[in-house]
Predict the 3D structure of the following.
Amino acid sequence: MRPVTLRILALLFSLAAAFPAFAAGGEAGATGYWKRPVNVGSVMSIESLYPEKCAKCHLSQYEEWKGALHSKSAGPGLLAQLDPKADPQTAGSCYYCHAPLVVQSEVIAGENAPNGSFDEKLKLSGVSCAVCHVRDGGVFGPASLNPGGFKIGVKADHVSLQKEFFEKAEFCAACHQLYEGFDLNGKLLVNTYAEWKESEYGKNGVTCQNCHMPGRRHLFRGIHDPEMVKSGVKIEVERTAQGAHIGAKLRITNSGVGHYFPTYATPLVVIKGFLIDAKGNVLRGTSKEASIGRKVNLDLSKEIFDTRIAPHKSYEFDYVVKRPVKGGMLVFEVMVFPDEFYNRFFKNAVKNHDPAMKKAELEEALKNTSGSGYLLFKKAIPLKDLRAPL
Ligand code: HEC
Ligand code: HEC
Ligand code: HEC
Ligand code: HEC
Ligand code: HEC
């Protein structure tokens, strides 16, 4: 049983036929740059496309990319679900974003024939340098900001062709936006580019690159990085005493995320409020919880809730203290689970001994996604301070 895969696959196929824009990468494909599978041409040798080869002259970009998730996109979570030889269509639908080069695919797209130019190592490099920079034997990049800035003595062994497209949000939309048909409860499953475009950032030309590649650095930090998340949200706590009641409110504002916080259905942000006594023990029955995110069920057929925060909007969490204790405190905690959906998905596959999944990869994926949660915010307020006049 491969519920998610199958549904995405069905959608992809019905879509490629119905919406040629999607097949060509939507708006981004207007230039043809993101036509898939991506052809790198025959001028360069396959080895010269390995990120380690680019690193010889572009070490900083390599190290940043290596520390980011694009370098891990052909990881165990993806590989566990695929059997490219037996089911090339499913694999192809995923490689579309996770490893889109012709040479990254075992099978020739649309045919069941083995691909003679397939390279395993390049496949495992996922969304690597060549995926974004190499087309038809040439290396493409943004207009140079600093033409003389390379170390003297290092000569490019490639011709570089400059494209303004690299500085546009449409460049990222190729994989961070889906189009009509991929929806659930009337909303697209991946809608980052459109969310951005409608926001103040889209209107003022603050691009994905401005926030995710500051100074052209290849950091691509997102929900998995606590500092990145802190840079995009403001968390405030205020007293809410009313009559005899005492309490407090936690407010999370999307103050600097260029799209919904979070944009995908995969993460979940969990807010908790609870009381502790003077010794720090949690008082039973005082815990209250709320979640921010778009929670969907495992086969993507149902949306359970959607509490994501649009740019410049806030989410409020109220806590009323029902039984004040002497010397006690009210504690607020905000936890981020970047892989909540996939963790649930992998757990379910392990539990059901899903025969369609590769066991070793599945266990590794389960382990990776089980440990990725982190504490974003914590504050303890003495109850006596809640009683002070406002
Ligand atoms: C032998 C050293 C060397 C290797 C290997 C190399 N490059 Fe370069 N690259 C350079 C130099 C030098 C420049 C700057 C001069 C120029 O623009 O031609 C450059 C420029 C670039 C640019 C900027 C182009 C622009 O217009 O702003 C990109 C992007 C790029 N390389 C990507 C890559 C990728 C991807 C690889 C691996 C497939 C790679 N390079 C391999 C030396 C190298
Ligand atoms: C997901 C797509 C993506 C991947 C993967 C990627 N790059 Fe880039 N790269 C870009 C974009 C977009 C820019 C331009 C950013 C901008 O102008 O704000 C860029 C810019 C560059 C530049 C020009 C830097 C400058 O200061 O002018 C070089 C060189 C480069 N990349 C090399 C690499 C190398 C080497 C790798 C692999 C280790 C790599 N890139 C991986 C998208 C990518
Ligand atoms: C060829 C497809 C492709 C392109 C183009 C692409 N991405 Fe990605 N991106 C992915 C995939 C696939 C992942 C997930 C990798 C994983 O976790 O396995 C990802 C992950 C990310 C993440 C990390 C999300 C997290 O959960 O923390 C960020 C941030 C990101 N991309 C930003 C960008 C930006 C900005 C651009 C444009 C400069 C871009 N991407 C272009 C495919 C792409
Ligand atoms: C439209 C682009 C796109 C397509 C098509 C796509 N993915 Fe992804 N995938 C992403 C992005 C972006 C992320 C990171 C954000 C997230 O976690 O949702 C991701 C994350 C993942 C992850 C979690 C991170 C990891 O690497 O373990 C898995 C597993 C995954 N995708 C599997 C698949 C499978 C299987 C398919 C094919 C049925 C597929 N994806 C098709 C873009 C895509
Ligand atoms: C104004 C800054 C800003 C802009 C513009 C921006 N982002 Fe983000 N992005 C963030 C911050 C901060 C986070 C971390 C919080 C979060 O996950 O929502 C993030 C998170 C992400 C993630 C992680 C997944 C998730 O569920 O949140 C992806 C993928 C991503 N951005 C892609 C993009 C793409 C693609 C664009 C352009 C269409 C873009 N971003 C524009 C600031 C920005």
